[in-house]
Amino acid sequence: MQPGNDSVLIVIDVQNDFLPGGALAVANGDEIIAPINVLARRFSHVVLTQDWHPENHISFASSHPGKQPFDVIELPYGRQILWPDHCIQGSEGAQLSVGLDIPHAEMILRKGFHSDTDSYSAFAEADGATRTGLAGYLRERGIRQVFCVGLATDFCVSWTALDARAAGFETLIIEDACRAINTNGSLDEERRQWREGGIEVISML
């Protein structure tokens, strides 16, 4: 794989709370850090994303009396899985992993900072209407092709990829540079959406 100057690597949420020992650890999430560092050197353009929640965020189970992490509720924008408190603004858990070595990354995009809306995707919040501005930024930079890696495959990586494709970018997921939560069959469901949405799944090996 040799990406061109019109390609971007989006490194999604490689943060302490999603790594082993974190508040919402993704199994074996630390395994992708070294491969992502190698992969990023092939790209002229790299964007990092960072989950960045206020305390008492609507996606936290602790914000809903009687609810537990991984319960599902309905919110005005749709179905919401409730999570343990994670990636709270300014906390150690919210910091990008110190293992990431991508000094040429051109942007860190923070998401999930509105208290009443979750945001898995780097392009739009969970309401589907509130845009982050990333699509416009990439178009102005002449980007045509988006490669997605990071955590977690079946949530933030998948939603980012689906929104990138919907925005008109050729979109690829490098699946061996991702790790999944895979709760209640979520990974199979996302893979189905990738097939239907025209997203290519590749390996860096």
What is the topology?
Layout: E1 7-12, H1 33-40, E2 45-51, E3 72-75, E4 78-81, E5 107-111, H2 134-140, E6 145-151, H3 153-166, E7 170-179, H4 186-197, E8 200-202
Helix pairs in contact: 3-4
What does this protein look like?
- The protein contains four helices and eight strands, in the order βαββββαβαβαβ.
- It has 205 residues and is α/β, with parallel strands linked by helices.
- It has one domain: Rossmann fold.
- The strands form two sheets. The protein has a six-stranded parallel β-sheet. A two-stranded antiparallel ribbon has the order 3-4.
- α3 links the parallel β6 and β7.
- α3 runs parallel beside α4.
How would you summarize what this structure contains?
The protein has 205 residues and is α/β, with parallel strands linked by helices. 20% of the residues lie in helices and 22% in strands. A six-stranded parallel sheet has the order 5-2-1-6-7-8. A two-stranded antiparallel ribbon has the order 3-4.
Total of DSSP H or I helical runs spanning 4+ residues = 4
Shape field:
globular
Q: Helical residue percent?
A: 10-25%
**Percent strand:** 15-25%
The end-to-end distance, rounded to whole angstroms, is 9 Å
Number of separate domains: 1
Main sheet attributes: strand count, strand direction, barrel closure: 6 strands, parallel
Mean pLDDT equals 95
Compute the number of strand runs.
8
Q: Tell me the CATH architecture.
A: 3-Layer(aba) Sandwich
The structural class is alpha/beta
